[in-house]
Every structure is written in structure tokens, then in C-alpha cells.
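testing teh design pipeline on a random one, pls ignore if ur not involved
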């Protein structure tokens, strides 16, 4: 993202800026300086081998740059970057996917899971979203409006989880 890109975007007062291809802490520091005149949040899309290797320093930026709110895992570009062949099971991206959620949580950031590309496979989307939640992700990227409802459903608390939380609150009251 260039200074010209931000100059074009920031007058619209976005709530957040998604920074693609984050590979180092210096990427975060540079964009933060460029965003000095706004209070927009910053979401870091990590989608290369270099970005995965530098996750600790990227996530640690949250300690001094409060606008950094989330790490997002970009599976498709990551797989391409490492020369992996994408599979339905996703074993080729498991390391990167796990590393992003662990580093996000370690530094108090939201962990946003990868996009699901097949637009006509709602069952697959639901399964992958549930899996992301099970891994500790707090949300999932969507590439089409019809993906929003299944993603929201997967990341919303179940009736049992709500009941358990209410019991916990009552126990401390």
C-alpha cells in the first residue's frame, strides 16, 4: 500500500485499513506513520512465508501501535508463496494457519481466518468456519455477501455456551 493509496482512501474515513502482504514489523510501523491523521484501525494480512516467519515481531507491534487490531491469515497467497498445492484438507497451510492464531492471541489481537473460495459450497464454508473457531480464530474473511450469515453463525455463541456463561456470572454475583 502506497502513500497515494492511503491519500485516496483516508478522506472517506474508513473504520479500518486492511494492509496486505505484511512481512515485517517495519511494514506496520510505516503504515502507522502514514495513518497518523486518522484513528482507523489496522488489520494486518499475513500471507507469505516471510510474514509467517516474522509473526512475533509483527504481532508485538500491538504493544506500541494500538491501531493494530487483527492478524488475518491469507491461505491462498501463502500456499502459492511456499509452492504448496492446495488440498481440501488444508494440511499444506496448517502451520501458517496455526501460527497466525497463536501469535494474534499472544499479543491480544483478533485472529481472522482465511477466505473460503468456493462460493457454491455453503456446507464447506460452514465446516471451515467452525474449524476456524475451534482453532481459536475470532472471525473469518468473506469474499461474497452470501458468506456473511454462515460465518456469523459459526462464530456466534451457541445456546449452551450462553447458558454456561450466565451460570458463571450468577456464580460470581
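output:
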Amino acid at each position: 500500500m502506497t502513500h497515494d493509496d492511503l491519500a485516496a482512501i483516508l478522506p472517506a474515513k474508513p473504520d479500518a485499513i486492511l494492509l496486505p502482504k505484511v512481512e515485517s514489523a517495519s511494514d506496520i510501523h510505516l503504515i502507522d506513520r502514514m495513518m497518523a491523521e486518522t484513528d482507523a484501525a489496522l488489520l494486518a494480512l499475513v500471507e507469505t512465508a516471510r510474514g509467517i516467519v516474522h509473526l512475533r515481531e509483527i504481532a508485538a507491534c500491538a504493544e506500541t501501535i494500538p491501531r493494530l487490531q487483527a492478524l488475518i491469515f491469507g491461505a491462498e497467497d501463502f500456499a502459492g508463496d511456499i509452492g504448496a498445492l492446495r488440498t481440501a484438507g488444508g494440511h499444506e497451510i496448517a502451520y501458517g494457519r496455526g501460527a497466525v492464531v497463536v501469535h494474534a492471541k499472544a499479543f491480544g489481537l483478533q485472529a481472522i481466518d482465511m477466505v473460503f473460495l468456493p462460493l457454491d459450497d455453503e456446507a464447506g464454508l460452514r465446516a471451515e468456519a467452525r474449524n476456524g473457531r475451534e482453532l481459536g480464530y475470532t472471525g473469518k474473511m468473506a469474499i461474497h455477501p452470501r458468506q456473511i450469515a454462515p460465518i456469523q453463525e459459526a462464530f456466534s455463541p451457541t445456546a449452551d455456551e450462553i447458558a454456561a456463561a450466565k451460570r458463571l456470572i450468577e456464580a460470581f454475583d
